[in-house]
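For consistency, the fold was encoded as tokens, which produced the following:
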Amino acid sequence: MLKKIKHLIGEQGKPLWKYLLPIIFSLYLLFSMVSISVSQIFLSLSLLCWIIFLIKEKQKPLIPSFFWPLIAYSGLSLISSFRSVNPEISLRDSKELLLFLIIPIVYTGFRQGKALKKASLALLASAYLCSLYSLLYFFFKAQPGERITGFMGHYMTQAGILLLFCSMALSMFFFLREKARFLWGIGLLLAVFPLVLTQTRSAWIGLVIAASLIILLYKPKVLIIIPIAAGLFFIASPQHMKKRALSIFSLETYSNRLRIEYTKAGIEIIKDFPLLGSGPDTVDMVFQNPKYGLSEDAKMNVHLHNNIIQIGAERGIPTLLAWITFLAWAFISLIKLLKNKDPTIYPFTVTALAALLALASSGLFEYNFGDSEITTLFLYMITVPFTLDLIKKREPKD
């Protein structure tokens, strides 16, 4: 028994936390699309293990360069919270900034490429469970026209996480050089249908953009499959979903008119609170003022349905610029990393690029960066290729 314990811990005194952290984080990924509460528990435990590991190893946390704008975003958000129209609400909301630590947790906590591959398989298993449950619910329990929410409790959260997964699954299917690519292909087919069934138009747009990028990097000539697949989905869809799809191009539909109202109101709020915004999580309080011109239906919502407008209105223009810098920095860094054709890194690099474009494009119509389940999965995906690159650079030295 003593020998087994020594083998687990490591003969050379390597700490148990080094092995435990990837396992616990993989459990977070396993439940990330199945249970919000359980996944949050494992994410919190991952943070705890990471802190203990850093203390015991006397190691400073490592971060990829694109994390610096997020540090600025966090600092400015805290200042905005203290100067908020309601500091209590804003400071309570600020705990969400801890989610950004998922980047150094993944970047520092994973020391082996194999551990990251196993973690990605945990996410794949989670997607299988989520997709199968959603499909069973649709066929046996859903009401006609109901928007499918899966395990997430809200169709937009469901759509957001499925959008990110589909981006990853398509990348893995095209670029992974292992038999597991077929598991990703099956996962993609299973996930696309629940994504469509959420009837979330912003996610549909994000999927088309992400898929176009992936196919462009794979074989540009195959891009023709995008309009063909979209056309087949449209033809096979029931009438209410066809109307939903066509409404993307109309400014007269109810939800589109509301989005125009939110954009106008958000711009006015930014003008009134340009430096620090009204404070995190307070925009829905501020836009109740008749001066912003929102209809009674629009006032019932809690955000402005646009990442750029929402962040600018509640946190101010400097914080918005920090957020845009973060996205641009991550995008440029990933483009540079594409030059590394290592088959163990390249599929994850394409995944990260597709996920970034998916989040940014769908975020023009929805405040998806404010959804913690979507944000954490997104931050994990864009960090993985840089972690693998770091591991590769360490290999000759270890």
Summary: The two ends are 29 Å apart (CA to CA). The longest helix spans residues 113-140. Residues 1-13 have pLDDT under 50 and may be disordered.
